[in-house]
Amino acid sequence: MKIGMLFPGYGSQYVGMGKELYDTSRTVQEYFEEASNCLNENFVKLCFASSDAELGKMSNAYSALFLVRVSIFALLKEKGIMPDIVASYNLGEYSALSAVGGLSFPDGLYLLNKFAHFYQEACRSMEVAITQVTGVSRNVLKEVFAAIPNTELLTVAFYHSPTDHIVTGYCTAIKAFEERICSYENAKIKSLSPAVGLHSSLMNQVAGQFSIYLSKVDFHNLNVPLINCVDAQEVTMGQEVKNGVIAQITQPIVWDRVLNQISSCDLLIEIGPGTFLSELAKKQYPDKQIISVQKQADINKLIKIVERSDNRNPEL
User: Fold this and answer.
1) Is residue 184 in some structural domain?
2) Which of 167, 181, 288, 303 is 20 to 30 A from 296, alpha carbon to alpha carbon?
3) Does residue 286 form part of some domain?
4) Strands 267-271 and 234-235
5) What is the pLDDT of residues 101-145, one digit of tens each?
């Protein structure tokens, strides 16, 4: 059985995420303790007893999601469930890299904390917006972009599928885009938080600031190949990994192409919280086994799936 693991980015956080696993696993508790020591932040309080608004802040959500996902991966590793390939969406790359040996846990926390600081400062100085548009093709997006003055202020930042995209840009351009796109039949829009990511030239300054701190961190060769989310190519070497981390700040996420690259996997595991990537994968691969792991029941279900596969394929 070939296993692919998917690591999502911002947006799936919720108060209480990881609590059940924290209450029953010393491994998870140790990760929470280490994270709290690294960033001088009470992650137990933040993840389990704060508010949606507080947890949703970039400075909190980025590191908290990283912590929970790395903890869940550690539990799967203890059970002998390891991936043959990993894929990451947006800032989920840090969790994926930590899981497969490319980045230490403290360094991941350090980088995400720095990135959140620079990105928050940039957002305060720019009037930017993000909208998800579904139900229209890329050709339609091109038509709409071409009809808007200063179209260079608009960017497709995420490619989810042929009819599902996220567009970013300045507020005025996004407003004009939304007004025009809604005239197309089947088009639906949904406003998203800028914390999702701009992935465009609007982030050039952030990339420049962040690269200084990125150079201070060691990136190691990966134990398992990672599918880069900006070009959908497999990477394993430390320098390639570092290049990908900086590239995704200013370049779009081509998740549709990433999904094509994991077509050979028999089982896809989304490392929770959340089911966003699982849902996208199920649309493309309705016959594959796909599971999101967030709680102990999910881990138990996953163990049974792997055991059944091993029993059918004893040579594995």
Assistant:
1) yes
2) 288
3) no
4) unpaired
5) 999 999 999 999 999 999 999 999 999 999 999 999 999 999 999
